[in-house]
Amino acid sequence: MAKLPIPLSRSFLLASCLLLLLYSALYLLHWREDNEHNLHISNNHVAGGSKVELSDRVLFFNRVPKAGSEMLVLLLGWLQRGNRFTHVRLRSSGPRHLDHAQQADLVAEVANHLANSPTKHISFDQHVHFTNFSAYGFENPSYVNMLRDPIEKIASRFYYARATPRPGGYTPSWTKPAKEIPPYSSLEDCMASGHPLCTYSTGRQYDLTIPYFCGHQPYCRELGNSAAL
Ligand SMILES: *[C@@H]1O[C@H](CO)[C@@H](O)[C@H](O)[C@H]1NC(C)=O
């Protein structure tokens, strides 16, 4: 397998993509100027009452991991004040695929933030698979995401798991469950060895990009399942 360096031109490409995405995000966030807060959230909505228009007020960045999302989250944070929107970081740990009750909780949490938001427009980020707000009595928010070449993503995860935290750097207070690290120093060696953690076979479930667009059903996480597309 070829080595996976990131040449300068690719960094520029990534930076341009980021800017383009941000521009689109801001375009979405630069909604109409009226400041009316005419939305009333009640439990009826979550229980399947009349649908509430979310797409012109809520931007939901259900960030695909290892695809540069931290940068976009930072930018959203920096730009919120000047652009009159509020950015809310939802849980950064925890499961990415949710059961029905957890999805309902997520929708209710978004609705609650919206009801108490000081600004009309609000953006959220969370590592979470596509959640169909329509199934919970809301219209879907405007979704935005960032993608990365799947092989680079796998390489990034492989090496990230080996990185030692920066000395003196920020250490999150929550602790991740210890993940098994395959005993190879390069992804190429690990794949060539056929180690289970570096093997990808059709029909098995992995932490893929597709479910961030497909949803929480198990088939969305199955490699090569065409129903997920
Ligand atoms: C979302 O849910 C609604 C209502 O259950 C359904 O009609 C719609 O097809 C779903 N959309 C997606 C993208 O799954």
Automatic annotation (TrEMBL):
Superkingdom of source: Eukaryota
Keyword field contains RNA-binding: no
Gene3D superfamilies per UniProt: P-loop containing nucleotide triphosphate hydrolases (3.40.50.300)
Primary localization: Golgi
Compartment(s) where it occurs, according to its Swiss-Prot or TrEMBL record: Golgi apparatus membrane
A GO CC term assigned to this protein in UniProt: Golgi membrane
Sample GO molecular function, one term: sulfotransferase activity
Annotated InterPro entries: Heparan_SO4_2-O-STrfase, P-loop_NTPase, Sulfotransferase
One Pfam family linked to the record: Sulfotransfer_2
Membrane-crossing segments per the record: 12-31
Membrane topology category: Single-pass type II membrane protein
SUPFAM superfamilies, A to Z: P-loop containing nucleoside triphosphate hydrolases
Keywords assigned: Glycoprotein, Golgi apparatus, Membrane, Signal-anchor, Transferase, Transmembrane, Transmembrane helix
Entry annotated with the keyword Protein transport: no
PANTHER family from the UniProt entry: HEPARAN SULFATE 2-O-SULFOTRANSFERASE, URONYL 2-SULFOTRANSFERASE
Family stated for the protein in its record: Belongs to the sulfotransferase 3 family.
Name of this protein: Heparan sulfate 2-O-sulfotransferase pipe-like
Species, as recorded: Hirondellea gigas
